[in-house]
Amino acid sequence: MLFATRTLAAASARAFSTSAAQNAAKVAVLGAAGGIGQPLSLLLKANPAISHLSLYDLFNTPGVAADLSHINTPAKVTGFLPDNEGLKQTLEGAQIVVIPAGVPRKPGMSRDDLFNTNAGIVRDLATACAQYCPKAHVLVIANPVNSTVPIVAEVFKKHNVFDPRRVFGVTTLDVVRASRFVSENQDTNPADTNITVVGGHSGVTIIPLFSQTPGLKLNESDLKALTHRIQYGGDEVVKAKNGGGSATLSMAYAGARFTNSLLDATVNGKKGIIEPTYVKSDVLAKEGVEYFSTKVELGPNGVEKIHGLGELSAHEQALLKEAIPELKKNIQKGYDFAHKTE
Ligand code: NAI
User: Fold this and answer.
1) According to the CATH classification, is domain 172-336 in 3.90.110.10?
2) Which residue of 2, 4, 68, 261 sits 20 to 30 Å from the alpha carbon of 204, by its own alpha carbon?
3) Helices 249-266 + 172-186 axis angle, to 10
4) Interhelix angle 314-340/115-132, nearest 10 degrees
5) Residues having CB within 6 Å of any atom of ligand 1
């Protein structure tokens, strides 16, 4: 009986690895040795839809890769440094590239304060993606996301490889936080507490749409407090880490959730997968906002359908009004940076 069970298990493992190998994807993580990069890579190693997890950073990636490679899931893990064309080797053949490379905030800093350092890092990594994996889906975690996503898009346009369906700003952490904070307030299970969050990924550009959650009734003071907490939740972590950086573990969870959803849509062929994400969007085209996060249905080529804003309460309309000029400024800043060295 024991033998039969083992034989069955071995056979199904073989069948599993054959089908996984046929459909699975190479996923690259740039900035993989950092605070987000390491736990994100750990979570991705568990996904059987990944055949090859390719890690890149300025230091320590061979060690991280060797460590992860002992986990008994199908993905092969490799780690590269800048020498020996490490970035090229990391990116060639990648179907998904996740970018958490860049400096995090310290107490008192806004995400925009990171621009001067991170804009150049993202531009250079995007240039490498355009050269070595021009058809990959690029998932930008590096802040300020409102500006770094337009930088990736402009770099890709310069190389004639821009496909708006394949460039994403990862705003999942805002949705994860909203779900958690509201479930604490309402004493509900976070797994069943879905809050739509639209806009961008910083301060006033983060817009929770509580009115769109059926059955959720918040009094005035909870509405204000929860809105503020979702917009500035990242500051709680920055303050608590006291100079040690910003959210890494919750961000790794959120980044893995988004990457896994994209793998479900692209590799596993699942339909109806919806994640909020900051993409090139027509939702606020009339207001001149080129990039915006709403719920997005993911498909084999990335963005399949961008959902609209839906109905907004007066409170939410006011939040949107406040977000628009800030978002436009952030987007323009990314655009200008990408073009200033032309
Ligand atoms: P970290 O400093 O711990 O790690 C960043 C890693 O990037 C380091 O290992 C560093 O060596 C690497 N790196 C720097 N330049 C690089 C380059 N040119 N090529 C490859 N790797 C490079 O920072 P952490 O905490 O992991 O944060 C990373 C970024 O993610 C920050 O910009 C942070 O603001 C952002 N972030 C975004 C969130 C979101 O919701 N989208 C949430 C939390 C953080």
Assistant:
1) yes
2) 261
3) 110
4) 70
5) 30-31, 33-37, 56-59, 100-105, 114, 118, 121, 125, 141-143, 145, 170, 173, 201, 245-248, 251
Chain centroid, CA 221 distance in Å: 31
Assembly ipTM? 0.99
Phi, psi of 170 (to 5 degrees): -85, 105
Which residue ranges make up each domain of the chain?
2-171, 172-336
Contact (Cβ atoms closer than 8 angstroms) between residue 183 and residue 174: no
CA–CA–CA angle 280, 285, 289 (5° rounding): 65
Tell me the per-residue pLDDT of 25-59, one tens digit each, with 9 for 90 and over: 999 999 999 999 999 999 999 999 999 999 999 99
Residues 6+ apart with CB under 8 A from 191: none
Mutate to test the pocket of ligand 1, among 88, 132, 143, 291 (most ligand atoms within 8 A of CB): 143
User: In the CATH hierarchy, which fold is given to the domain comprising 2-171?
Assistant: Rossmann fold (3.40.50)
- For the annotated binding site, the residues are 31-37, 57, 105, 111, 118, 141-143, 177, 251
Nearest alpha carbon, ligand 1 atom 30: 142
